[in-house]
Design brief:
The complex is a heterodimer of chains A (about 400) and B (about 140). By secondary structure, chain A is α/β, with parallel strands linked by helices. In chain A, strand 7 (about 165-170), helix 7 (about 185-190) and strand 8 form a beta-alpha-beta unit. Chain A is built from 14 helices and 17 strands. Chain B has a single domain (about 5-135), classed as Sufe protein. Chain: A, CATH 3.90.1010. A 3-stranded antiparallel sheet of chain B has the order 1-2-3, with helices on one face. The chains are: A alpha/beta (about 400), B alpha+beta (about 140). The interface of A and B includes residues 344, 352, 366 and 404 of A. The complex binds pyridoxal-5'-phosphate. Pyridoxal-5'-phosphate binds next to helix 4 of chain A.
Chain lengths: ~400, ~140
Amino acid sequence: MDKNILAKIREDFPILGTEVNGYSLVYLDNAATTLKPKYVIDRLSKHYLYETSNIHRGVHFLSQQATTYFEEVRDKVKSYLHGDSTWETIFTKGTTGAINFVAQSFGSIFNSGDEVIISQMEHHSNIVPWQMLRDRKNIVLKVAQMDERGILDLEHLESLITEKTKLVSITYLSNALGTINPVDKIVKIAHSKNIPVLIDAAQAIAHITIDVKKLDIDFIAFSAHKMFGPTGVGVLYAKKQLLEKMPPIEGGGDMIASVRFDKTIYNTIPYCFEAGTPDIAGVIALGVAIDYINSIGLKNIEEYEHKLLQYATQKLSEIKNLRVVGTSPNKSSVISFVLDGIHPHDVGSLLDSKGIAVRTGHHCAQPVMEFFKIPATTRASISFYNTKEDIDRLADGILYVQSIFE
Amino acid sequence: MNQNELYQQVILSHNKSPKNFGKPATFTHWAEGFNPLCGDHYFIYLTIEDDVIKNVFFEGEGCAISKASASLMTESLKNKTISDVESIIKKFHDYMTLSQGNLKDLGKISVLSGVKDYPARIKCATISWHTMKQAIETPVSE
Ligand SMILES: Cc1ncc(COP(=O)(O)O)c(C=O)c1O
């Protein structure tokens, strides 16, 4: 990506002009949520200003129009993930909503003693729903280990599989470490024993080209807000063949074909899984976010971010008393680190005083912190609108923090 | 306020060399405070005699604000009666979490005043104080 393109892209994000504590904003908290380009925001306001209407079953113009725009996004999701009619798009509230839905619906057909395998580097949203299922249905939750670089131990994962294993649920890209997991290998291992795989793509979705067909992913979950779209919207993209075995979890309007007091007939897939009025504007704006990413090109984004992450890793490794947490050679967009003798909370506050937004804490991955025996890390996470200058500001900021604590 | 004022010299030095730090050989009351959100984790150990805090120690790990706050607290509450301590804790708590009153008459503790302007950091300043309150109410069992 050359300088001019980058400058133009940055103009799409008005928030980048914000001043924080007298400094221009350096936004390095993209793993928490990405910024929104003006096109996404404009689309939300266009819907509410000129297109407001509820979807489905409406015979009037506005309702049909909103329904068309809403339904088109299922196809945009399909193209973005390189799927075909084998899969279906289900709109949820986010990654968390999607994983919980799988745990509740797919999980409802598990029996006592059945097993779910996750990994040590999961976000809490890919841990807690399975623990809740464990408490409800007496299933067994198994955890595949990682090594001290933050690389998943595939042999261990494979050794956990038994004839009772019903699902393998793993993150594509760790939000705490930046590790990219070998989804192709994970799926091969699981499928060789006929076990379906759920991929948490909350982080991967904005950074890595995902081909569900080539990878043969059964369930994949992501959030719109981590890919330049609005909050409150997410997707579960899943194989129809599996969805057909799964009961609806929420009942209400839109998910039914007919309701009588003695018997209700559910609507077809995907509508039977989308009870109630969804975030219509949010879904339509997710479509615009997908278009926006496509207009830049995910391949270009991957290439640029890879170089920027390398630059950041190099730059930070030159700083004394700094240790990067998560050193897999296969990483994307995230650099987590600790400074000797300085708590991440203090690092975050002092960087903020220089206008630099990073995240500090356990990043909703407490088992990761426990594994590395640290209470928290400071995490810088990049996106394609970040620049080398942002990384330089971060590095200078860290030196400043160290000078305060000298 | 500028962050440099948040990290004043007094706070930095209490962070570096906290007062009353460690686990005493004997104590009559104690409590543990943990904030899973940031990992701040402290223990307070008290020796209470005749309703007076004769000795107070703390131990644990956390950010500079939490450690300095704990250190300053132990200094200021030693040799005070339980009822005085409870009113100081209330004053500190009301100031930090309800923006009521001020810390002016609490001596050195007033260097923590600025923390109130950083909502994300208030819990750092208050964790040891909550733990202190709990410790007063928790005699060592047996
Ligand atoms: C890897 C991963 N999974 C799941 C989530 C949860 O996403 P959401 O809060 O949008 O549901 C996140 C968000 O931080 C994440 O990073």
